[in-house]
Amino acid sequence: MYTNKPTMSLHTGYRILPLLLLLGPGAAFSGNPVQSVQLIVESSGPHALPHIVVANDGTRYTRLQTSTLALPVRFSASCSADTTLRQAYLGVGRFNLLSGKMDEDQKIYFERLQGSLKSNRLRWRRHVFNFDVGRIPFKNTNPVSACNSFLQQKLSQGLSRQVFMQQPRKMKMVFEISFAAECKRKWKHVGMWKQVTRKVAAVVVCKGRH
């Protein structure tokens, strides 16, 4: 399990792309004290999409040149009146939640958010989520393999390797991030969880020779 526990830093100044996912009180588990979890990825437009650059050795694409991404997000959570919001996580991928419990065997990279989480709500906060590109669980492929598949496709169509690799080639790939919150009743040691997951589009740049 990959984890880190940084101090939360807040960032402002981003224009919000109005993409909001909301889980209501009855969306997941009956009796779950988590009333809502909300997550927004902030952006100033299509040119602000995260870029992932893939390097080549002149004949094929070999490695990620972009090592980390910084994704500005906003999130909030609320619990029922007789519970407290114990903790919250931001993660790359989806958390394993079983009957409202957090699975201890987490395979994804996540960041634990701590602070003034002693009330029954976490008001809207801005945060920059930093994570390694190599830990993004892209579905069925990864940026290096995607660039090589694109190259092979064009070669099969008659384009020469030299012409294809002379300039950068771009494509979009999608990954997921999740925000999960735990609410617990005061007399219990652990609580129950809910999460919201949203898709993030990234621009993969298959780097050219020049």
Major beta sheet summary: 7 strands, mixed
Estimate nothing, just give the exact number of structural domains.
1
Radius of gyration: 20 Å
Main β-sheet, spatial strand arrangement: 1-10-7-12-13-4-5
Count of helix runs: 2
Decide which structural class fits the backbone. mainly beta
Regions with little confidence, pLDDT below 50 for 5+ residues:
1-30
What's the pLDDT, averaged over the residues? Answer: 81
Label the overall shape.
elongated
Question: Tally of extended strands?
Answer: 13
Measure the end-to-end span: 39 Å
Helix content: under 10%
Strand fraction band?
over 45%
Topology pattern, helix = H, strand = E: EEEEEEEEEEEHHEE
Description of the structure:
The chain is built from two helices and 13 strands, in the order βββββββββββααββ. The chain has a seven-stranded mixed beta sheet with strand order 1-10-7-12-13-4-5, with helices on one face. The chain has a four-stranded antiparallel beta sheet with strand order 2-3-6-11, with no helix packed on it. By secondary structure, it is mainly beta. The chain is elongated, with a radius of gyration of 20 Å. A hairpin with a 4-residue loop joins β4 and β5. The longest helix has 14 residues. It has one domain. 26% of the residues are buried.
